[in-house]
Design brief:
- The complex is a heterotrimer of chains A (about 325), B (about 290) and C (about 325).
- Chain A is built from ten helices and eleven strands.
- With about 325 residues, chain A is an alpha/beta fold.
- Chain A starts with 8 loop residues before the first strand and ends in a 13-residue tail after the last strand.
- Chain C has about 325 residues and is mainly alpha-helical.
- Chain C has a single domain, classed as Orthogonal Bundle (MetI-like fold).
- The chains are: A alpha/beta (about 325), B mainly alpha (about 290), C mainly alpha (about 325).
- Chains in contact: A-B, A-C, B-C.
Chain lengths: ~325, ~290, ~325
């Protein structure tokens, strides 16, 4: 397959809703990731960001259903509702996932090299076990693991968390995917290890791979991503280029997140700023605007669901957006 | 308006948790009902049985179920229904004593192993492993060989053989409790070990012990049945489900009912205690909540 | 690994030593006089004294213990107090029979439990999974000898497909041997299989929730292949431990099942010895059974370490 020019979408999600029998966990999420683009998806835990990623990959837990549309470039059918076999052929080949827990993401009873080689053997991108193993060692070198040949023979418990996460990244990159989804890949790591990991992800997605990077760490998004999507209560509340969203947030929730992450900003009593209240449990979000129970700008109008204003690539859903610049009206 | 409401953040309602709860409730209900039925049978048998369960009535031998004999009669003409009722008494009696011995010996030993010095703890647990190498039946056979088999040797054997599972469980639970901050605080405050054991450890492992009691009861019922079947348990003429089965074996072709009735009684009683244990586990041990 | 192995081996030897003292002490000290027990209350004092001397029962306990244990180590199990025959040959013979039973029962249990447990775990939200769980719950509650009685009634007495009991050694007639093994193996294996199914199910359920299964699926493995390649080996670790404990249960279960099917195994030898008050036979058989249990536990520990690479590195 020929690589098309940048700015063509690799992932297009439209109207994605994820629900259990009686509760909607993600509602009407639409997003797009272009080739070579790095998109950050941020929100507090419980905002539905990980479920969104799982829905894209078709790895939702049992008893959880997704509706809407998920399209991957070069695939002529919708991923939602596709057969398990069709999805399995895409996972690990065209779209891959690096997720949060490096300590548990690898099989404890299998050598690292075989776990990396497996993803190439499953998709037959290497002809035999030998060449797959050789390629695996190369990949381990590419993610800058020290002594890749030795590391390859190790079992996961012999590696540190950062090393394991690099093995997981090597697995994800093995077949040169079009779409790489990272679900909080650095949360469990030390700060210095985290920086190196981010550098690797940046290098890996420099060419034509699209990246969807899920995190609650705004600093990581600021340093890594081109564009950012903000989720709250299972809904997208704001999106746009990182620079613009972070300097001029329109949604009060985004503003709250930014204020909470700014360690130099304090309130009138000298305490760090936080968003008041806590994230409600799933299914307990209010009708209308999901954020209104914690929002200091909420009024009667917020009982109605706010429309999306702007373009899908840059917009927000709020009745009372803050003005560009972040000040009060 | 500030619009901040204090909405507690509940757990994500995974379908699994709910299904698990529902399953636990069903287990608890069915298990509880079966156990209650056995207990009721045993209690009623003290006051009333349709017939004297040991009364030999030769003319009426091997009769099928009738108004006079609900479950028929055995080869001596004894009333099967009455035997089952009194057999429930035997089963429960053996179970209570055996499991009681096991819990009262095993639990303190386990707590001791957790709270004492490493060397003593290790010693207790090694001894524990050693006792595990002597299954209940083997112990009962040894006791039987030496003292002559009866209900007492069966109860003791089952009790001793079951004690290690209590010790192991109690030790595990106690180690966990001892690592908590409130126990640390109690220690810092200078509380004596015995006081900590009684005030903190025992109440916190009570749930585990109760679950184990129910499960062990099922095992004890099975063991008693097996021992009586081998002639190493309850002696005639005291009715026992295991011996009823053994006596029925050679009459299987003539009257399968004689095996079916005590067999069903044993299976249902064991099922009851197992289900009750499962249900209680899900109720009392939050860590296992999600497991099926 | 080597250190672990040595340590385990030492524990095994120590356990065996203590167990032998327990068995000997219990049989020798508590009953008073084995000769009296063997000969009955009507024996004359002279006969009693002669028998005591003949079997070395008039020697000090320590000497008797050392004599017994020394004999065991050299394969000499002593002579029966009742018949005066050597115990060793028949014990070895019957041990073989019981091992066949236990092995066949274990095979049946595993053949039932692994597929049923995996299926019940994979389909734990569907009817089929619930049905398997329910059946296993029922199976656990059925005593092995009851299963045996019912099996005999149906397949031997009513249908006449297989013998209802007895034992044909494999060297005499392999076909008859296998036919005769079917029912005892089933009555041992069905019940243990039900128990094991529950453990397999919960081990597989645990493994299915592991992140590395998700990783495997993110690699493009179908759920079934992910479980097969990454799940089963990890699920095997807890199951093997249970399997070891089950061998103990099967060994004991065999004692009862031998009674149902009139099979001349270790269990029959033991029960007959109890009936005849043949205390040295009881003592020998109990020791052999305990030895087997301890040996199995040791092997399970070793296997556990082999299956679990995290333990292999320690020490």
């Amino acid at each position: 397959m020929s690589r098309s020019e940048p700015r063509s979408p690799v992932l297009t999600v439209t109207g994605l809703t994820v629900s259990t029998v009686d509760t909607e966990l993600v509602r009407d999420v639409s997003l797009r990731v272009d080739r070579g683009e790095r998109v950050g998806l941020i929100g507090e835990s419980g905002s539905g960001k990980s479920l969104t990623a799982s829905a894209v990959l078709g790895l939702l837990p049992e008893g959880v259903r997704a509706t809407g549309s998920v399209r991957l470039a070069g695939v002529d059918h919708d991923l939602l509702g596709a057969s398990e076999r069709a999805l399995a052929a895409l996972r690990g080949r065209r779209m891959t996932l690096v997720f949060q827990e490096p300590m548990t993401a690898l099989n404890p009873a299998m050598r690292v090299v075989d776990q990396v080689a497996e993803v190439m053997l499953v998709h037959r991108t290497r002809p035999d076990r030998r060449s797959a193993r050789a390629a695996a060692v190369e990949l381990l070198d590419r993610v800058r693991l020290p002594d890749p040949a030795d590391t390859a023979r190790a079992y996961p418990h012999q590696l540190s968390g950062g090393q394991r996460q690099r093995v997981v990244l090597a697995i994800a990159l093995a077949n040169d995917p079009d779409l790489l989804i990272c679900d909080e890949p650095t949360t469990a790591l030390d700060v210095t290890v985290q920086a190196r990991m981010l550098e690797l992800i940046r290098a890996a997605t420099a060419r034509s791979t699209g990246l969807l990077f899920i995190t609650h760490d705004l600093a990581v998004v600021a340093s890594l991503c081109d564009r950012v999507l903000v989720m709250y209560g299972g809904r997208l509340v704001e999106s746009g280029p990182v620079h613009q969203v972070f300097t001029a947030p329109r949604h009060p929730y985004t503003r709250g997140l930014l204020a909470a992450s700014d360690l130099t900003a304090t309130d009138e009593r000298g305490r760090l700023r936080t968003i008041p209240g806590s994230v409600p449990g799933a299914g307990q979000f209010p009708a209308g605007c999901v954020f209104r129970t914690r929002c200091d700008r909420a009024d009667q109008a917020c009982g109605q669901l706010p429309d999306w204003r702007g373009t899908p690539e840059h917009g927000h859903a709020c009745w009372h957006p803050t003005h560009p610049g972040g000040g009060a009206p | 308006m500030s619009g901040v409401e204090d909405i507690p953040s509940g757990p994500v309602p995974g379908a699994g948790t709910r299904a698990g709860r529902r399953g636990a409730n069903a287990s608890l209900l069915v298990g509880g009902a079966l156990v209650a039925a056995v207990v009721l049978l045993a209690l009623v048998s003290f006051l009333w049985t349709p017939h004297d369960p040991t009364l030999v009535d030769a003319p009426n031998r091997l009769r099928g179920p009738s108004a006079a004999h609900w479950l028929g009669t055995d080869r001596f003409g004894r009333d099967v229904a009455s035997q089952v009722m009194v057999g429930a008494r035997t089963t429960l009696f053996v179970g209570v004593v055996a499991v009681g011995v096991a819990a009262l010996v095993g639990t303190p030993l386990g707590v001791l192993a957790a709270m004492s010095s490493r060397r003593l703890g290790e010693l207790v647990m090694r001894g524990n492993d050693l006792v595990l190498a002597f299954p209940a039946l083997l112990l009962a056979i040894m006791f039987g060989a030496v003292f002559g088999a009866d209900t007492l040797t069966a109860m003791l054997a089952i009790g001793i053989a079951t004690a290690p599972s209590f010790a192991r469980l109690a030790r595990g639970g106690a180690v966990e409790v001892l690592g908590t901050e409130y126990v640390l605080a109690a220690r810092v405050a200078g509380r004596r070990r015995l006081a900590i054991a009684v005030r903190h450890v025992l109440p916190n492992i009570a749930g585990l012990v109760i679950v184990q009691t129910s499960v062990s009861f099922g095992i004890a019922v099975l063991a008693e049945a097996a021992l009586s079947f081998l002639g190493l348990g309850t002696r005639p003429p005291t009715p026992s489900w295991g011996r009823m089965l053994q006596e029925s074996q050679e009459l299987l072709t003539v009257s399968p009912r004689l095996a079916l009735v005590p067999g069903l009684a044993i299976a249902l009683a064991v099922l009851g205690f197992n289900l009750l244990g499962d249900g209680l586990r899900d109720r009392l041990d939050p860590r296992l909540e999600a497991r099926g | 690994m080597l250190f672990q192995l040595t340590r385990r081996l030492l524990i095994l030897l120590a356990s065996l030593a203590v167990a032998s003292v327990l068995v000997f002490g219990f049989m020798a000290v508590l009953p008073g006089d084995p000769a009296q027990v063997a000969l009955g209350v009507n024996a004359t004092p002279e006969l009693l004294a002669r028998t005591r001397h003949e079997f070395g029962l008039d020697r000090p306990l320590v000497v008797r213990y050392l004599d017994w244990i020394g004999g065991l180590l050299t394969g000499d199990f002593g002579r029966s107090y009742v018949t005066g025959e050597r115990i060793g040959p028949s014990l070895v013979d019957r041990y073989g029979v019981t091992l066949w039973l236990v092995g066949a029962g274990m095979l049946v249990a595993v053949l039932i439990a692994v597929p049923a447990g995996v299926l019940a775990a994979v389909r734990h939200r569907r009817i089929s999974g619930a049905v398997i769980s329910g059946l296993s719950q029922l199976g656990v509650a059925v005593p092995g000898f009851l299963a045996g009685i019912v099996l005999v009634q149906v397949f031997a007495v009513s249908l006449g497909l297989v013998p209802s009991g007895g034992w044909t050694p494999p060297v005499v007639d392999p076909v008859e041997f296998l036919l005769g093994l079917i029912l005892p193996a089933l009555s041992l294996g069905l019940v243990q299989g039900a128990v094991l199914t529950r453990y397999v199910r919960s081990a597989v359920l645990d493994v299915l929730r592991e992140d590395y299964i998700r990783t495997a699926r993110a690699k493009g493995l179908t759920p079934f292949r992910a479980l097969l390649r990454h799940g089963l080996r990890n699920a095997a670790v807890p199951v093997v431990t249970v399997l070891g404990l089950q061998l103990t249960t099967l060994l004991v279960g065999a004692v009862v099942v031998e009674r149902v099917f009139v099979i001349p195994g270790l269990g029959s030898l033991l029960l007959d010895a109890v009936g005849n008050r043949d205390l040295l036979v009881v003592q020998d058989v109990v020791m052999v059974l305990v030895l087997t249990v301890l040996l199995v536990n040791f092997l399970v520990d070793v296997l556990y370490a082999v299956l679990n690479p995290r333990l292999r590195q320690v020490g």
